[in-house]
Known about the structure:
- The chain is α+β, with helices and mostly antiparallel strands.
- The protein has one domain.
- It is 36% helix and 29% strand.
- The chain contains 4 helices and 8 strands, in the order E-E-E-H-E-H-H-H-E-E-E-E.
- The strands form 2 sheets. It has a 5-stranded mixed beta sheet with strand order 4-5-6-7-8. Strands 1-2-3 form a 3-stranded antiparallel beta sheet, with no helix packed on it.
- A hairpin with a 5-residue loop joins strand 7 (141-148) and strand 8 (154-155).
- Helix 1 (38-56) packs antiparallel against helix 4.
- The model has no long low-confidence stretch (mean pLDDT 85).
Amino acid sequence: MSGAYRYYNDVYIANFDTGNLFKYRVVLGDVEKLSPTGTEIQAFNKAKVARSRLRTEFFDVPTEVAPSAYKVSGASYLLNNTSDYYFDNKPRLAEEMRTYTESLIQISGDINNVQIEINLRFSDESTGVFEIVPTVGASIALKIVKLFDADNNAIPTTLK
């Protein structure tokens, strides 16, 4: 065999709610706790800020794109319209997503099992939490997580 064989894996566990980043090295079934490097901590802090902005700020959806969370739950084309609008016309949202994912890649070299959620507000004051679904070679899509009317009552996510 030519070249060096890497016989370990570094595993990172990030808890954005508490602000903790943990690093472990797994070597042939043994686990060793390590301290994250300064670069990894800086990247984690950048990811934490970007994730917070994505999760706490509401992005307004124009009426002509999708008038209501009720309508989005019952019409996939309106969900697609909303996805297209945000990723074609909102550079700040794209920048926060880019910062978040690039920071995570800088820490671990990968972004497996990463969920990115955003909050959208519609013109009728209904709101929704949507997961950004990264896809390879295609437009980024949104997946409905939760929907609420203007009075904060839950809206079913599968209206017909």
